[in-house]
Specification:
golgi apparatus; elongated; Vps54_C
Length: 250
């Protein structure tokens, strides 16, 4: 349906990551992007299948307007199921059993965030597209239905963000003993700091192919803030004035 592609500015391409993604110069990694309103989202195969199903439903809405309300409800059910299954498979780790994964990695979390972000960006266009077809009573019902879905989806997506941040907090806790144990600090110097920097670097490397700048800044901003508070508290009372300590700090 040409109207679908035109109104939603929706297309799938094999593209080089655009400037809105954080990519070092010379990086030639390709990413599958789906675009809504000129904003690209790296997504998995499941989203391409979802878009195909939505396209089929959209044709039914305009071909048989007398069943439009029922079809639009099925569209909303499909979007809701995608959101729910994404949370169950990745956050709930059900994909370990159903897809044979050994573990759920930060890569999986980041990709799922962008899949949900794409759906979140698409839903308001769908709402506006279909509400204009309906009488006021049905339009109000459909609007309320989409609003609730968007609220739930945003909450679920935020749980994915929170999971990534919690992973980094847990890694901080595993190295915190080095910070609060003077004997280990004297023996190993600032080794724990090097470990933390390496962990943050790993997270950056994982997230940069997937996230827009503001998404990365949000995650790293909260993570670094937590690190600063935790390490400041851990170092309180350490006898850094002693000569041996000063040599290690230096």
């Amino acid at each position: 349906d040409a109207r679908w592609n035109h109104e939603l500015d929706l297309h799938a391409e094999e593209l080089m990551p655009s400037e809105q993604f954080i990519q070092p110069q010379g990086d030639t990694t390709k990413a599958n992007l789906l675009c809504v309103a000129n904003r690209g989202y790296p997504v998995g195969t499941s989203v391409f299948l979802l878009v195909q199903l939505l396209t089929d439903y959209d044709k039914w809405v305009f071909t048989f307007p007398f069943i439009a309300v029922d079809v639009i409800q099925r569209i909303q059910d499909l979007l809701k199921m995608y959101d729910t299954q994404a949370s169950r498979l990745v956050l709930g780790a059900a994909a370990i059993e159903t897809a044979g994964l050994k573990t759920i990695t930060t890569h999986h979390l980041a990709l799922t965030i962008q899949c949900l972000s794409f759906v979140r960006a698409l839903a308001p266009f769908l709402r506006a597209r279909y509400v204009s077809l309906l009488p006021p009573r049905h339009a109000t019902f459909i609007t309320t239905m989409f609003d609730k879905f968007l609220k739930d989806l945003t909450q679920h997506r935020n749980e994915f963000y929170r999971k990534i941040i919690n992973i980094m907090k847990e890694r901080l806790n595993t190295t915190a003993e080095l910070a609060v144990n003077p004997a280990k600090w004297l023996e190993q110097g600032s080794g724990h700091i090097r470990i933390l920097i390496a962990e943050i670097g790993k997270l950056w490397k994982v997230l940069k192919p997937y996230f827009h700048l503001e998404q990365t800044q949000s995650i790293f901003g909260e993570t670094v803030q937590h690190y600063n508070i935790h390490l400041k508290k851990a170092f309180e009372g350490m006898p850094l004035a002693e000569e041996a300590w000063m040599e290690k700090v230096g």
